[in-house]
Amino acid sequence: MAKPKLTLFIDTVSPFAYLAFYITTTSPIFKDCDVTYIPIFLGGVMKACGNTAPINIKNKDKWINIERLRWARLFNIPIAETPPEGFPPLTLGVQRALCALTLTNPERLIETTAALYKELWVERKVIHKPDALLSILQRVLGEAEGKATMEKSTSDEAKKLLTANTEKALQQGCFGLPWFIATNAEGKEESYWGFDHLGQVIDHLELERPKRGSATEGGWRTML
Description:
The protein is an alpha+beta fold. The protein contains ten helices and four strands. The protein has helices at 15-26, 42-49, 60-74, 92-104, 109-122, 130-141, 143-152, 156-171, 198-204, 217-223; strands at residues 5-10, 34-39, 179-183, 189-193. Strands 2-1-3-4 form a four-stranded mixed β-sheet, sandwiched between helices. Strand 1, helix 1 and strand 2 form a beta-alpha-beta unit. The longest helix is centred in the last third of the chain and has 16 residues, at 156-171.
């Protein structure tokens, strides 16, 4: 029987995509699942769907910060109490860099994405300015590869991949992040939106439910 598969579309600008990325990369629940991370440009998705960012909606702008902190505490996910200064940053260059890494060294995508998420959502530091992005890439990948990845991020190939990834997400129904495509061992595919639907994701994938007493038990208990 085939292993269950999960695709998670990500943009570093989204705190809820960060929460989903953190759990899927650290929780033992996903150890028997093939997880693929695809960098997209959330701004492109929002524009294509005619969506309004939560921070531009009266009352929801305040609620959304409360909600991200609530889920982070329930799942013991490190995150800053206040959003990064100047939020939301334009992450087009960051996402192109992740696409460049997908092309040249995909094995380093997860650790690089994790470093970028930590820098933005835990340390509240700038990641979208070229000097800051280059510094992070070199810290994770080494000086030479970090520089090469930064240079590759401005190539037509990296730009086209980000556009293609974003279009793929749209074609699969995406209108916001996190967006999951879950395929269970029988080959049945379902899509899910939002961190709060992660419980439905693991049930569809028929993954083992979290054990009692785990660090994330409080969060899973509210979902399952």
